[in-house]
Amino acid sequence: MNDLHATRLNLLAGGTDACTEMERAIGIAQSPACRHVFTRTLFDEARRQVAGSAPQSRLAGLAFTAKDLFDIEGQPTPAGSMVLSHAPAAKADAVAVARLRAAGSVLTGRTNMTEFAFSGVGVNPHHGTPANASDAATPRIPGGSSSGAAVSVATGAAFIGLGSDTGGSIRIPAALNGIVGFKSTARLVPAQGALPLSTTLDTVCAMTRSVRDAITAHEVLAARRVTAGAASLGAYRLAVVKNVFLDGIEPAVARAFEDAMQTLRDGGARIEEIELPELAQLQAINATGGFSAAESYAWHRLLLERSGAGYDPRVVQRILKGATMKAHEYIDLVHARHDWITRVEAALSPFDAVLSPTVPITAPAIASVAPGAERDDEFFRINALLLRNPSIVNMLDGCAISLPCHAAGELPVGLMLWHAALHDDAVLAVALQAEKALQKQ
């Protein structure tokens, strides 16, 4: 499947045209592979817009999708819920949506998500759960919360899946579907017009088919240029954190990760194993509930009083954990995080990027975590495993990218390259070279 860059070059060479590419994307979007992917489609509007698009534009009239928590002018913003399905229409596009449109991309629809973005699994009891693109035989979870956005990219229904990442909501579905997901440093992309989960941790970002497409999408969303030179893998000093990130790792993930490390070493990478003892402190730091619970409860409390019965019970359970946090506990949390970030940044300062499995498991069957109280224990177990590794980067206020590292024919496994805040360009530069090496194996 061609990425955005290759397709745009083909457009400029006259080998295809934007209308043909849009019809191809819409055809996939309407196929069984995209069942439950969209909460609202904009196919007719997309056809009209693409007819007047210019192939010379940055995104060349090619399709993108937007997670259901982004404002789109003239539409309500339900964020995967039913309780906001009849909310007042947005008066303007979210900044991220507007920037993608201005760069020439064409929006084909709003994508399904975990209700209010509060889970890494991707299950939605209101709109159905889109099946992972990697396994036609067994419907598997797509990962969340940007579930539909991931499947839209993985199936070929879109070149860019606009989403958000608060604890891994871009990187988890990217890893499980075998695509690329880049979480930038949060402050680089405006969140205006995106319904919040945690104003401290939320990051507006995207999923794509390649690292070079991830760079393009980020440049558009952040309105900045990435400096990612062409240095070889050997030019970078890389680390693997041995504690926490590799705990409880599934054999298939362990094998793919070890093979990827060997491939990168064979390509000249200098990889050092390190310990981060600071990771053991996160449980105590978040003991009173953490940012997502407190900040989501502050946003949802009045809506819960009016319409709580219409929420996904699993989401309510997580939001209500924020109801008991006291003001001094929240302030203590802010200070503890700041101190923790300072110490972790110092430990990582000798390295250009850190390597970890994005998540420690492959995608389980949807049936094992489908809505139902009898499956809640398994749902929360899987959710905790999926969030564990990527959420560390959000707590760090860092940046990270997930790219595929599994062998052909196996369930997707993601390799996460990450670092502290504002190391985005270095992480992307290493990712370009890592992707090149992994694609040769």
Q: What's the helix and strand layout?
A:
Elements lengths: L3 H10 L4 H12 L8 E4 L1 H9 L11 E5 L27 H8 L3 E6 L35 H9 L4 E5 L6 H7 L2 E4 L20 E5 L2 H12 L14 E5 L9 H16 L3 E5 L7 H4 L4 H18 L5 H7 L7 H22 L4 E5 L18 H20 L3 E6 L9 E6 L4 H17 L1
Parallel strand pairs: 2-3, 2-4, 7-8, 7-9
Antiparallel strand pairs: 1-3, 4-6, 5-6, 5-10, 9-11, 10-11
Characterization of this structure:
- The protein has 14 helices and 11 strands.
- The protein has 441 residues and is α/β, with parallel strands linked by helices.
- An 11-stranded mixed beta sheet has the order 1-3-2-4-6-5-10-11-9-7-8, sandwiched between helices.
- Strand 7, helix 8 (251-266) and strand 8 form a beta-alpha-beta unit.
- The chain starts with a helix and ends with a helix.
- The mean pLDDT is 97.
Outline:
This protein has helices at 4-13, 18-29, 43-51, 95-102, 147-155, 171-177, 211-222, 251-266, 282-285, 290-307, 313-319, 327-348, 376-395, 424-440; strands at 38-41, 63-67, 106-111, 160-164, 180-183, 204-208, 237-241, 270-274, 353-357, 399-404, 414-419.
